[in-house]
Amino acid sequence: MVQRHHRSGFMPQAWVFPGGRVDPTDALCDHPSVTGAGPLAERLGMSVDRAAGFGVAAIRETLEESGIWLGRGEPDDTCRSALHIGERTMAQVLDDGAGPVDLDLLVPWAWWITPVVEKRRFDTLFFAVSAQQAEGRHDAIETVDSRWVAPREAIAAPMLELPLAPPTWWTLVQLAQLDSVSDALAGAPWVGRPVQPVVRFPEASIELLLPGHPEHPDQAIEGYPDRLSYGATWIAWRAGARL
Predict the structure, then answer these.
(1) What is the reported pTM?
(2) Helix (H, G, I), strand (E, B) or coil at 60
(3) Using CA atoms, how far apart are residues 173 and 217, in angstroms rounded to an integer?
(4) Which parts of 67-193 fold into alpha helices (H)?
(5) For residue 125, which phi and psi values (nearest 5 degrees)?
(6) Mean pLDDT value across residues 156-170
(7) Please, what's the b/e burial string for 94-116 (b: 16 or more CB within 10 A of its CB; e: otherwise)?
(8) pLDDT over threshold 70, residue 22
(9) Right CATH number for 2-159 from 2.60.260.20, 3.30.70.20, 3.40.50.300, 3.90.79.10?
(10) Are strands 34-35 and 101-102 parallel, antiparallel or unpaired?
(11) Mean of the per-residue pLDDT values for the chain?
């Protein structure tokens, strides 16, 4: 996980998974060093172009924010910073021998859309992938700290020590119920439709109403809570049972 800079325009100082915006140049389904776009598109239920954009962006942003390369080969030392400031595109990095990348290795995990009350909104896919023995390090630009953390430890940490956005927290809760990387890759809870919370502000806390809640327009998603409630230092969830 990486910690966002306090000046970030969205979720400043929050601990997040590496990721970021899909660029138009990420739709590389026809690039010779990009494979697996078709199978990924089938799992996501979207066009090959769009799936390739999400997949390539995930690989690119992981390199930019954490220094971890999920393709084969080894990008040279200048690739990370050049990608970050827009001097090079992923196609150029792949042409220079950093690839190939297999998008079929990305396992769809979850799909969240920012509530309409937010000024900056995102349509976000979460993927699981084995990083093997990668070390990783934050970029010291958009992210100011980084660490490998066990999911159970992350959700047990005080919120002031490890502030988490609700989708990140819930993903960690899901991961904490699994015992290994292979379990996570085999048991990803992908449901093929987005979760877009409805926000309420009761008293001094915030509630995110999720599909299945009486005040949410969408049907329930199996395995998901119907509400996330959190204040300054805590998050709890309710779905008929508690962890």
Answers:
(1) 0.87
(2) helix
(3) 24
(4) 79-84, 90-93, 151-156, 166-176, 181-186
(5) -105, 140
(6) 86
(7) beeebbebbbebbbbbbbbebee
(8) yes
(9) 3.90.79.10
(10) parallel
(11) 86
